[in-house]
Design brief:
27% of the residues are buried. The protein has helices at residues 2-13, 18-37, 71-74, 88-95; strands at 42-51, 54-63, 98-104, 108-116. It is built from 4 helices and 4 strands. The chain starts with a helix and ends with a strand. The radius of gyration is 14 Å and the shape is globular. The chain is 38% helix and 31% strand. Strands 1-2-4-3 form a 4-stranded antiparallel sheet, with helices on one face. The longest helix is centred in the N-terminal third of the chain and has 20 residues, at 18-37. The protein has one domain (2-116): Heat Shock Protein 90 (2-Layer Sandwich), CATH 3.30.565.10. Helix 1 packs antiparallel against helix 2 (18-37) and helix 2 (18-37) packs antiparallel against helix 4 (88-95).
């Protein structure tokens, strides 16, 4: 919940409209939940961006959990290891302007989301 509030506040401060606010907040919420549920907790770094006259938000989530064995499979809609709908990672990717995952088995995961205004 705290991640949602902080991301929304940053999006408002950067002048994001309601639709873009909702997209980045929803993506952040999904990844934050995965960080806690599958990674055992972790950290998030939030960064306001300004590049070539446009503004954006970058979020970097890191954990030291078990990692994601098959990233391509994990991004497919309907794939779940936690009993949910299996829309979290793929949905977060679709809601982001830029999205990347780095993960190593037994070492953890780093997911970067960027949304441009």
């Amino acid at each position: 919940m705290r991640v949602r509030q902080i991301v929304r506040r940053c999006a408002v401060e950067l002048g994001f409209g309601l639709v873009d606010q909702t997209k980045i907040v929803t993506a952040a919420s999904e990844i934050a939940r995965n960080t806690v549920d599958h990674g055992g907790g972790g950290e998030v770094l939030l960064e306001g961006l300004s590049e070539n006259g446009r503004r954006g938000i970058r979020l970097v989530f890191t954990d030291k959990g078990p990692g994601i064995e098959d990233i391509n499979q994990a991004l497919k809609d309907g794939f779940t290891t936690g009993g949910g709908l299996g829309l979290g990672l793929g949905g977060a990717r679709r809601l982001s302007s830029e999205f990347s995952i780095e993960s190593r088995s037994g070492e953890g995961t780093r997911i970067t989301l960027t949304r441009w205004k």
